[in-house]
TrEMBL record:
The chain crosses the membrane at residues 40-59, 204-224. This is histidine kinase. Gene3D superfamilies: 1.10.287.130, 6.10.340.10, Histidine kinase-like ATPase, C-terminal domain (3.30.565.10). It catalyses: ATP + protein L-histidine = ADP + protein N-phospho-L-histidine. Residues 1-16 have a biased composition (Low complexity). SMART domains: HAMP, HATPase_c, HisKA. Keywords: Kinase, Membrane, Phosphoprotein, Transferase, Transmembrane, Transmembrane helix, Two-component regulatory system. It is an enzyme of class 2 (transferase). It comes from Plantactinospora endophytica. The lineage of its organism: Bacteria, Bacillati, Actinomycetota, Actinomycetes, Micromonosporales. Residues 225-277 form the HAMP domain. PROSITE patterns: HAMP (PS50885), HIS_KIN (PS50109).
Amino acid sequence: MTAAPATGTMPMTTTEATRETTTESPVRRWRPALGLRLRLLGWALALLAIASLASVVVIRQVLLNQLENRIAADMRQEVTEFRRLVGGRDPASGQPFGTDLRAIADTYLLRNEPQAGELVLVFVDGTFHRATANPPYDPSGDPDLLRRWTGLTDSTYGRIADSPAGSARWLAVPVVIDGAVRGQVVVLEFGAERRAEIDRAVRLMTLACLLVIVVVAAGGYLAMGRALRPLRTVTETARTIEETDLSRRIAVTGTDEVADLAHTFNGMLGRLHRAFAAQQAFVSDAGHELRTPITIVRGHLELMGDDPDERAETVALITDELDRMNRMVNDLLMLARAEQPDFLHPERVEVAMMMHDVYAKAVALGDRDWRLGDLDDTAVWADRQRLTQALMQLAQNAVQFTEVGDTIELSARSETPGQPGRVLLAVRDTGVGIEPEDRERIFARFARAEHAPRRHAEGAGLGLAIVAAIAEAHRGTVAVDSVPGAGSTFTLVLPAGAVLAPGLSDILLPVRPHLGPADGADR
């Protein structure tokens, strides 16, 4: 193995190199090359250009097809007019033409006014006789075409692909008189001029489309700027909102998508504001609750003398304060764990059996008139230990707000007996009750009932927060019903989806604990 050469400096680690690179060249925020306004306008113009081009191509093809059909109809019309003279009378003498094809041809060509690009040729007895005057191109000098036309005995369509006048279509028809072919009539249509008209029309359409695109681009740029103005307002307002000032809101006008975005953004700000305020309150309350026992411990340690009795008394007091701190820290850790996926370990729980176990444990909490109320025979898919913890916390809470001899009753019943429905686990007491203004805040962390007698306002205010967290982890709720001076009833509500049908002990129902921040605590 070859040793690395020694140097005077240590090699820089990957983390250090990354930190140095980050310090020297701060990361820039990536911004798109084009704004939303230009991108939307570009897509709109692209679609408009494609649609316009497709329209021009389709219209040109339709016009060309119509031109071909019109040319074919014009050629058939010329042949039909020529055939009307065959077997007719000479308008000059009033006598029948008979078999005089030359007279028929002369009369027809004399009376015929050819359209632009049209040529009629008449062949008599295999030789060229006469054609319309001033043709775009005279094909009578082409021996191949002459042989083909003069040899026809049936009507035939054809095309001249290349000529000085452009391409042309022709229709050649034999002239039959008295059962014999006496000659041929050939009608040619040169469509170059008509196609040129179509091309001119298409060019005008293209220019019109380009003008429309330019107008749409200018108008669309202004219209999109006006439409996106509320979005810019949202962005500017969002930039002015700081982490420590979440009270600002975006003014909402209209009912379009941008208004929905503004409503959603305002709602998000409201949730962030509440979460930030709750976080600040939580940090303040937790600091206050933990600072008090620390101050007590430090004060007694500083004043502790050498007297054994005094030292023993001080140690006992310090131990009690440390135990209280330990309970508070454990409660906080439990609330933090309530947001983790593995907070629950669900299993089949027989509700009546669990309530008997909770009753046996709760009677040791205080000298009260403990009772077991209605216990429906049902089973749920839940975490038995967490449910027991929540019920014991409610029982402890009831002991704290009752006197010796007051009644505390535990009960469990199905909302719809005999059918799948919610299960209600209740703890009822006949204590001091809760004022209406306290019922909404007692489930907040470190919150206590402000109107309760001072002797009852003990603890850190985390008990009911734990109960609420356990209920939410089971996708349930916790509710309170109280009459001041007459007692309270706390109900842990398990959803219908957690209820197991009789005999389905092996079915694992999906209980997925997922919590947001818990918002419960003691009265």
